[in-house]
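Example 9 (inverse folding). The structure is encoded as follows.
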């Protein structure tokens, strides 16, 4: 029998979702926790990968068992897992839907603060920049859904199973005081470091060191930029995963610091 698990995690202490020989992944922690409960090894399959230090407001994985368990797995698993990983729903599935391959849309949020704030350092990325050219950043962002080959904005295009990604929406939001920014993007799939590379390039446009035309040339010609510098990982959140058969609202919430009631996000 197949189950989908709806979870959330703070990625600050992990090398990403996936198992790594060189660091602790969220997948390893979850599998080891399940093994403590079920007394047998239980491999799981996640809905995607996240980089080291990246968070997931919504994430799904699936596992298969011969027989349903006769106890409250949600309670037991949350009790065993560390505080930075939470399980919200355990869903029995008809047939064998796949947590990774059947996902149709994935949305990410990237948070930036432009003045130093000790309470944001682990949940948002600090860029000490002022007077960003927001109109230019908005114009460049509007280009993203118009192109589908993101080879030029991928760290390892040769290692990918194709470089075509269908971006359905992308936008920037700004808070009331203007010292915090939020980038949102939705697509069917992403390449290695793709979102962080895009954010890095858009910030360069904002500081005037890259033009909108140069940015579009990367998308149009697929020519890799001389320098690919991903934005910092801690500002990035996988915020929504959608399936044809499953479309749940995120159960968790961004850090209370990120969602302070005095902050109202407005689209650029």
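The amino acid assigned to each position is listed next.
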């Amino acid at each position: 029998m197949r189950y989908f698990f709806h979870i959330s995690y703070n990625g600050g202490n992990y090398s990403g979702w996936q198992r790594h020989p060189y660091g602790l992944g969220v997948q390893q922690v979850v599998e080891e926790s399940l093994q403590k409960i079920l007394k047998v090894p239980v491999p799981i399959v996640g809905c995607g990968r996240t980089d080291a230090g990246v968070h997931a407001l919504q994430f799904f994985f699936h596992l298969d068992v011969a027989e349903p368990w006769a106890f409250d797995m949600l309670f037991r698993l949350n009790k065993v897992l560390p505080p930075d990983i939470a399980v919200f729903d355990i869903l029995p599935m008809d047939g064998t839907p796949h947590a990774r391959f059947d996902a149709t849309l994935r949305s990410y949020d990237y948070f930036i603060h432009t003045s130093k704030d000790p309470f944001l350092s682990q949940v948002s990325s600090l860029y000490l920049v002022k007077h960003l050219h927001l109109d230019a950043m908005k114009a460049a962002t509007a280009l993203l859904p118009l192109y589908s080959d993101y080879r030029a904005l991928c760290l390892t295009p040769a290692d990918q199973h194709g470089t075509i990604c269908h971006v359905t929406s992308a936008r920037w939001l700004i808070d009331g005081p203007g010292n915090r920014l939020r980038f949102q993007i939705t697509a069917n799939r992403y390449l290695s470091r793709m979102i962080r590379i895009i954010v890095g390039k858009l910030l360069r446009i904002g500081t005037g060191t890259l033009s909108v035309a140069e940015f579009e040339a990367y998308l149009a010609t697929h020519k890799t930029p001389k320098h690919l510098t991903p934005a910092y990982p801690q500002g990035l959140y996988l915020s929504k995963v959608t399936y044809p058969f499953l479309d749940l609202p995120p159960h968790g919430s961004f850090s209370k610091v990120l969602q302070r009631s005095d902050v109202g996000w407005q689209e650029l």
